[in-house]
Model the fold of this input.
Amino acid sequence: MDKAQQDALKKAAGIEAAKLIENGMIAGLGTGSTVKFLVDELGRRVKEEGLQFTGVTTSRRTQAQAESYGIKIVDIDDVDHIDVTIDGADEVDKNFNGIKGGGAALLWEKIVATNSDKIVWIVDESKVVDTIGKFPLPVEVIPFGAGHVIKKFEAKGYKPVLRLDADGKEVRTDENNYVVDLHLEKIEHPFELAEDLINTVGVVEHGLFLNMVDTVIVGDPNGPRVLTNSNK
Done:
């Protein structure tokens, strides 16, 4: 699938998901290429349909985009709940376990998600897999002692790689932390891995989002498909 086709599927999923936002809602707005289409569509609805809602964003990038459309964005601590959060995902399997953090926003994404009544992911069909892990698993780590955390991951066979930008500098998250990507290929026991990672001193958060999502909207050439998690 070329990028233009993939973008068309992402856009279709984003437009479909935008229908879930109603007047007066508090909506979590995720981060990434698919969410960009969602926010464009919400901006259109604000302008053309007079839609009024309050947004909580998972990154400064999304905040800037939403505010450019006149969407009201508030701090997560200024709301007592979030009605629905719509976000992308880097991979999602048939058990509704996912990997997020390709855009280095995993910590904010998880904070927003865990404070949401409903979680919806929008993806193109390439992100739907049998077993997660082919996409490198992002782990957010504190810069102090990051080298030691990486050594621990190496010893466990997690194949860690410190994420660098195009200039060879460490990628920094919105909280100024580093991202270490684990090249695992296949994650057979995601819950055990999540437990191990979060108990590693120096790790702030990891990109495993396990059985958290309620609905996945998949951009499909035949029109958006909706997958519902019956375990929630």
